[in-house]
Amino acid sequence: MTPLDTLYLASAATLAAMLVLGDWRRAGVLATLMYGVQLALLFTMQRTGSTSFDLSALGFELSWRFDALSWFFAVVTLGTAFFASWYGAGEWLRAYTGRRRLFQSALAANVFAMLLLLGSGDLLTLFVGWEATSWAGFLLMALAGGLARDAALRYLVYAMAGAMALLGALVVLFQAGGSFSYEAARATLAAMAPGPLWALIILFGLGFGAKLALLPLHLWQAAAYSETPAPGSVFLGGVVGRMGLFALALVLVGLIGIPHLQALAVPFTFLTAQDVVAWVAALTVVLPTYTALKQNDARYLLAWHGIGQGGYMLLGLIVGSALGSAGGLLHVINYAATQATLLMVVFGVRHRVGHTDLNRLGGLVARMPLSFLALLLGIISLAGLPPMSGFVSKWMVYSSLIQDGRPFLFLAAIVGTLGTILSVYKLIHNLFLGQLRAEHEQLNEAPLSMLIPMLATATLAFVTGVAPGLVLGWVADAQAAIGLPVIDYTLGGIASPRASLDMLWVVGVMFAGFGVGALLFYGAGGKTHRVHQLDNYAGGHFLDAGMRYHYSDNFYAGLMHLIGGWYRGSFHWLEGAIGSGLSLVAQGAGGWYRAINPAFYLLAASVALIAWVAL
Amino acid sequence: MNALVLPVVLPLLTAFLLQPAGRLSAALARWAGPAVLLVCAGLLVQIALLTGGEPVTAAIGGFAPPVGIVFYADALALLMAIAVPVSALLLWPRAEAGEAGVRQSALMLLLVGSGTGMALSGDLFNLYVFYELLTVASFGLASATGTGRAYVATVRYVLVSGFGSLIALAGIALLYAQTGSLNLAQLADLAPERLANPLGLAAFACLLIGFGVKAELFPVNNWVPDLYACAGKPISALLAGVVSKLAVLVLLRLTVLVFDSPEAREMLMVLGLAGLVTGELAAWRARDLPRLLAYSSIGQLGLLFVALSLPGPAGLAAALAVALHHLLVKPALFMLAERWHGSLDKLAGAGRASPLAAGLFTLFALSLVGVPPLPGFWAKLLVLLELARGAGPFDLTALALVLAVTVVEAHYLFRLVGILYSPGEFRDRHSPRALAVAGLGGAVLVAAMLTLPAVSDALAGLASQAADTAAYRTLTLGGGL
Amino acid sequence: MHRIATLLFALGLGVLLLGLAAQLPLGATPMAIGNEILARAPGEIGAANIVTSVVLAYRGIDTLGELAILFAAATAAGLVLGHAGSRSRNGEAGFILRTGSDLLFPLLLTVGFYIVLHGHLTPGGGFQGGVVLAAAFFASFLARPSHRPGHGVISLIEGLAGAAFIGIGLAALAGGGAFLQPLLDRGMLGELVSAGSLPLLYLAVGLKVGAELAGLLAQLAE
Amino acid sequence: MDMTFAPDPLALLVIGALGLIVVGAAGLAFGRHLFRLVLALGLAEAGANLLLVIAGYRWDAVAPILTGSAPAAMVDPVPQALVLTAIVIGVGVQALAVALLVRVKLAYGTLDLAELKALVERDIRAAAGIGEPDSAQAPATLPGPAGLIGERP
């Protein structure tokens, strides 16, 4: 039995255990332990890979194996699952009113399906894993019912459209190369004429892009992720969308190859396929990030960010240099920790308050200081500022864009980051800063079972920010696995001659600077003392608890007014137009079947048929 | 193998004698039908075991073909022939008291006899006769619910069927005028010389329209939704399940043996695509489950015709996979619709009321959409691979349409699954028999999934045997008795 | 508008069909099996009417199917109309009609049976004769609606006649031959008792068709 | 088209057969009364049968009945047998169709297509419990956008 077999067995056992014991009071703890075991098993496995079982069906060979890329994504998957499950193991589960067995099973099924996807050893297996992941995700998204069901259904449409595009690409590729194996596909793609190759790239892009929520396939994601029960949302937001990145890395980079993409020109323009993908990624960074800015629900705000961050990852990956692709991949793990932290905090607030409406919160720092700390670390990381890990990966992406001579993409990335900073400020301001509402006076800090995981992931994001070398080794192996140039790293960061970064220094200087500042302040006799929120006045009047002086409605009104008209609703319009068009055709089809005098159509059809024959 | 005729004749004999027998004893009239079906199924299984899947023929009346009528039983024909009595047994109409019940039983027996005949016969006009018998028997069964709308739906069905059969008859006339023969094997011999012309194609078009009525082929399928909505669900299940497959089998034999030309395949593909797209889109808008299933059945059969238009044993294997999958799934779904017949929106809560039924529905829906590793996925994959192999503009359009329509299918099926599992007032539960039939379908589906390699080998064997026209001709015209 | 559309469609269809039909080898059909049947039938079957040989011997199972279709139609019609419950028809026909039908009844019966029994010799046969038989019963039924033939009798005749047809076929099967293989002595070509079991089969067909049609008409007339 | 109409009685017969089919089909297509549709069907069927008989016809041949004299060339007996079968089938279907029409008339009181369509549609709707009128067969499209994007005002 290979290590991968053991891992699959453990994952399947988790699913089985949840199917049987999911209703048990301590099922969450058991699940967390089992995810922990899986994680441990993964760490005992060689990073460079392991094989697992294979079987044959209808003359096709299906095989599963891990390489370093799979391993890298599996670490993120299992890590996120572990913390998400932990988060939901204690008080959250006690308060959960839905169907517990179903929920726990759905989570375990997602993990299992994703491991299967990551282990796919050929294109057919990839599709099987892809579908398994999609449907497991659907189950997890839909099980809350109500709005979640509608959102999941919308997700399903996009996921199925993607899956079908993927399937179309696979069968075409199979017929061109005679096999589903990666080797054959690589050879076929290398020899393929530009036209069909473009078609395949578009199909693969649609297929994987639907899960990664690339523009214009992104409309489903925010609601689907946000309406899922808390640990599920954490898991989905942290890692599930990244499966699209995994598959894109596998196919676009691993099978087609960056040089081939660079050589493939868009007809009649000076652009190449690489540019197209990069610009799609850049637009995915910018537009959803500014959509996030408009959100008034903390969950949706974070989910919209998730879409944008996926764009960063793809952007880095598709640049293809050692630095850029490492940045893109590193962002996967950094972002997973960051997003998990943020979502855990937000759902912690929801657990205490009952909602996450940014217009009806504020000042919670006084009641939930540790959550505030976690959120603070999280948004620093999300905005890409030192000393958190988000800074490292984004810095790598930016540097690679500049090194690669792509100023406009760099500009787009910067604009995206600007939007991120604005919106995370909205998040922390409207949640934790400002005036505490009277009805929230009696709130408690989030329960320990939820607090520990969020602080743990925040710590992870901090540690990997200070010492990115801890995980850059994984990234380097993953790069090697898909034939990318490998990043040269140190414990503190990057050691390349053209762009080097040592976070140990950066953080050291930063904290030293803070220390100097503190020394100056206290040395100059500065004093601090706590002030109550209501120990304040405005316009000459003292404030009382009943007076609202914390304005959170219509945040960034001026900015929204400025940019609102640019992109508002165009994608909805597109989606709606497709839906209406289909609906119209469907009405016609229904009319054909409902007509009670069928023979007229028969006659018309037979005339047409005979005419066809005769002519 | 003269015994081949027995599974066709015995049900007819029983049907003739059922009414007189009903005067003697009600119990006899009630149980004779199922008993004879059991015997027929047993006989067919025994024949299959004896021959081991090798094709055999039986010359009716001892007249060697092509002068006489011949029954030809290869593995595929036997499989379909076995499916007929077995489906009929599972979907036997609920016993009505008195004469109506006896009549219904007699019609069921006639349907089984003719269905078996359609699976086995190797003579075009004989196929037409059995087809007509099946049609007339199904008229009676479809109207047996006795509601006004069932009568109207049946009248529509009669009119379309009548139109179809007269077109088929014209097609037979064209064919006969060209070749002077009705035996499929001889037609296959003569086809390259006599039928490779517009008249031959016209004959094919006519036969396609004629036999297409039962197979829910595009222009002649608009009797389907109302009839399935108004007839008894077991009858709908029977018609959508095995009966449509018998008509498909006839068309399969025709395309493989006689009309193996690109033009004929093109025609099949275009009509199949039209059915696929209109059916699935209409299902998308359907507001009640029976009609949803009827429309989706049209769509599925459209896919089947697309698969049927693909050349070679691989294309045939794809078509058979789709056909067998649909044969398994659709009757089971119709049995579930027996209780879930109202507006879709009113089904909320049904998942709680009967979890087994909802679970089965979800399983079937997943398989219909084509989610790996369920059998439906492999069937669809085979079709898609063959379409991609063709790689002509027609094939690629078909490929794109099949894929696009799958998304629509997933949407309406899982919208319904979502409704089933949402909280609601629906409390109706299924009859044990409906659940048993659906459960059996589900069990076979899962078993097929678990034994996929064996199933796929068997399928490839079936397809290569059915595609072997040389063997068909030598065995039939070589005068094997 | 409606009429113009009708006309246009019909014209188009007609022209298209004519275009196709123009390519038909009219009057010189290939007769791939026809010639062989013409050559073999007299010796093999022994019926003077070769169409009868085809109907009952070479394509006997078609005929069985045909009988079954009639039976199915009658049964289905019974099922459809059976729900209605018979409405009583009062009033008998006038004297002339009654007498006429009484006179016609034996005549029609005789003619019918004659046509049935000579089916293997002359044009005619079970179907044609059966229709005449049905007409005999139907005429009397029209004249005396109250004296309709018993439903049980009709169903008995149709059942037994159909069973007899199959029975003759099965007898051949049981004797080691094929289903519907001709039995009995072929006899002299052209004589009444010739062509083996064919007259028997036609008798069964005639009775069955007669009963079927009588039943159908009676049901519809109700 | 290499058609030689004038001296050819068979061609006239073919035209007759096709004419019957066309008239029947047109009647089927544009008839507004169910009973007329059934009649049109019968007409078209007669045309198809005629076509079938013609398919077996030969010049200079007699009916396939042995009369004792020297056997002349005979026409193909098979189509004649087929037509016999086809006619009977047609009769059965027509009878059944008329039986069904009787029931339809009893149930709805009309055989007019337009009236029937409305009546049946209403009936099916009522039976299925779908109350809304036709126009409310609302496009069952994707769930409405506003709520699901999270853009709540």
UniProtKB/TrEMBL annotation, chain B:
<feature type="transmembrane region" description="Helical">
    <location>
        <begin position="36"/>
        <end position="57"/>
    </location>
</feature>
<feature type="transmembrane region" description="Helical">
    <location>
        <begin position="235"/>
        <end position="259"/>
    </location>
</feature>
<dbReference type="GO" id="GO:0005886">
    <property type="term" value="C:plasma membrane"/>
</dbReference>
<feature type="transmembrane region" description="Helical">
    <location>
        <begin position="398"/>
        <end position="422"/>
    </location>
</feature>
<keyword id="KW-0472">Membrane</keyword>
<protein>
    <submittedName>
        <fullName>NADH-quinone oxidoreductase subunit J</fullName>
    </submittedName>
</protein>
<dbReference type="Pfam" id="PF00361">
    <property type="entry name" value="Proton_antipo_M"/>
</dbReference>
<keyword id="KW-0812">Transmembrane</keyword>
<dbReference type="InterPro" id="IPR050586">
    <property type="entry name" value="CPA3_Na-H_Antiporter_D"/>
</dbReference>
<dbReference type="InterPro" id="IPR003918">
    <property type="entry name" value="NADH_UbQ_OxRdtase"/>
</dbReference>
<feature type="transmembrane region" description="Helical">
    <location>
        <begin position="434"/>
        <end position="455"/>
    </location>
</feature>
<feature type="transmembrane region" description="Helical">
    <location>
        <begin position="157"/>
        <end position="177"/>
    </location>
</feature>
<feature type="transmembrane region" description="Helical">
    <location>
        <begin position="129"/>
        <end position="151"/>
    </location>
</feature>
<keyword id="KW-1003">Cell membrane</keyword>
<dbReference type="GO" id="GO:0042773">
    <property type="term" value="P:ATP synthesis coupled electron transport"/>
</dbReference>
<dbReference type="InterPro" id="IPR001750">
    <property type="entry name" value="ND/Mrp_TM"/>
</dbReference>
<feature type="transmembrane region" description="Helical">
    <location>
        <begin position="316"/>
        <end position="336"/>
    </location>
</feature>
<comment type="similarity">
    <text>Belongs to the CPA3 antiporters (TC 2.A.63) subunit D family.</text>
</comment>
<dbReference type="GO" id="GO:0008137">
    <property type="term" value="F:NADH dehydrogenase (ubiquinone) activity"/>
</dbReference>
<feature type="transmembrane region" description="Helical">
    <location>
        <begin position="198"/>
        <end position="215"/>
    </location>
</feature>
<feature type="domain" description="NADH:quinone oxidoreductase/Mrp antiporter transmembrane">
    <location>
        <begin position="121"/>
        <end position="389"/>
    </location>
</feature>
<feature type="transmembrane region" description="Helical">
    <location>
        <begin position="292"/>
        <end position="310"/>
    </location>
</feature>
<feature type="transmembrane region" description="Helical">
    <location>
        <begin position="356"/>
        <end position="378"/>
    </location>
</feature>
<feature type="transmembrane region" description="Helical">
    <location>
        <begin position="69"/>
        <end position="92"/>
    </location>
</feature>
<feature type="transmembrane region" description="Helical">
    <location>
        <begin position="104"/>
        <end position="122"/>
    </location>
</feature>
<keyword id="KW-1133">Transmembrane helix</keyword>
